[in-house]
Amino acid sequence: MIGYVTLGTNDRERSAKFYDAVCGELGVGRMMEFDEFIAWGKPGGGAGIGLTKPFDGNEATVGNGVMVALEAKDRDQVKRLYDIALANGGTDEGEPGPRGEPDENGMLFYAAYFRDPDGNKLNAFLMDKVA
Questions:
Q1: Mind telling me which Gene3D superfamilies this protein's record contains (predicted)?
Q2: What is the DSSP letter of 35?
Q3: DSSP bridge pairs for 37
Q4: Alpha carbon distance 32, 107 (integer Å)
Q5: Domains and CATH numbers, the chain
Q6: What percent of the chain is helix, strand and coil (3-state, nearest 5)?
């Protein structure tokens, strides 16, 4: 079970604005905050997201192949999360839409991809019945 994921930032305030907006759409706010670290989530809830300047003092960099997936409740929320991300300094990595083919149960992976202001890759997704 994942408790939380921490991403690096080089501009805490800029990235905090991004995550305040994205996490707000998901129904959670800041649950912990220190000078160099902020965490969004709900105590006792699902996995949270942490944001920090690297503890070693070096510049934060993006992990190649690393992505954080945010589970949405429906296709409209996938679109809202994508729009919120782009409106708050994020960049497009793939508009909302189906990915792949339905599985044997008629479930389809539906997602949108974006990067935060520091370049960390995220997506908003859900497994949805084919309409």
A1: 2,3-Dihydroxybiphenyl 1,2-Dioxygenase, domain 1
A2: S
A3: 52
A4: 36
A5: 4-54+67-129 (3.10.180.10)
A6: 20, 40, 40
